[in-house]
Amino acid sequence: MKRTLATATLAALLVAGAAHGATTPPPRADVLYNAGTAALDRGEVGPAVAFLTAAARLEPRARDIQINLKQATIDAARTRGVESQDEIEVAHDVPFSTTELAWAGAILLLLGAGLGIAARLTRLPRGFAIAAVAVVLVGTTLHIWLLARAHAEAVHPEAVVIVPQLAVERGPDEPSRAPVILGAGERVHLGPTRGGQVEIRVAGAAIGWAPHEGLWRVQETPRYTARYATP
Fold first, then answer.
1. pLDDT at 5
2. What end-to-end distance do the CA atoms of the chain give, in Å?
3. Which residue in 27, 32, 202, 205 could disulfide with 222, CB within 3.0 to 4.6 Å?
4. What's 208's domain CATH number?
5. Distance between CA 120 and CA 128 in Å, rounded?
6. Are 132 and 5 spatial neighbours (Cβ–Cβ below 8 Å)?
7. Is the pTM higher than 0.85?
8. Cβ of 9: how many Cβ atoms within 10 Å?
């Protein structure tokens, strides 16, 4: 049991270190919120959704961010001609930021290791050692999930349409069809790039190619906040 716990803890700590090393210091949620609110006040629903989505990643439980993100999403849908409230889908993510989840995983790893050591040194009942391994496994699983989510974002980053209409054309090797028209504020994921075009993915499937200029990657929105800074 001692060797099993030590091996599990070492592996978990290696995963945790990789997860923390793969991240960069996050931007400020209040700056993104202010930019998103300014864009919403201007009627620029695409940038508003992009900024507020980025802010919600950092502060997922902030009420002001969630209220304005919902309003921006509704305004964007109505701009595209969607009137029924039932047809407007407001995306919901886990109510914890990546940083919070990473800390929770690290704490679980340390707690599990501490329980395991205490159980071994003080001759506590076998149940404590089993509980220690279970806690380490939960912490490890959490960090692996964070790594998987970071990988998914790196391969297919989330983006928001910022232009009133974005024509998604078929690829050169795809059957002929009419372009798919996306509207401002729609959230998509991106695939590979080709020249000035990027593959657009919706619900996990590629639907065609569109110009880079009509989209903002959510993770890159901090570079645009200066355009919406209030004096």
1. 44
2. 62
3. 27
4. 2.30.30.40
5. 9
6. yes
7. no
8. 23
- Residue 134 lies in domain: 2-24+97-155
Strand order in the sheet with 205-211: 205-211, 197-202, 187-194, 158-161, 215-217
> 182-229, pLDDT tens digit by residue?
999 999 999 999 888 999 999 999 999 999 999 999 999 999 999 998
Six-digit token string for 61: 């439980």
How many structural domains compose the chain?
Answer: 2
Residue 37: predicted pLDDT: 97
In this structure, which amino acid lies at residue 59?
A: E
60-72 burial, b at 16+ Cβ within 10 Å, e below that, comes to: bebeebbebbebb
Can you state the percent helix, strand and coil of the chain, rounding each to 5? 60, 15, 25
For 195: left if phi > 0, alpha if psi spans -120 to 50, otherwise beta; the answer is left
Q: Where are the alpha helices (DSSP H) in the chain?
A: 2-21, 29-42, 45-58, 63-79, 98-121, 126-155
Residue 166 shares a structural domain with residue 216:
yes
54 lies in a domain? Answer: no
Q: Distance between CA atoms of 219 and 231, rounded to whole angstroms?
A: 25
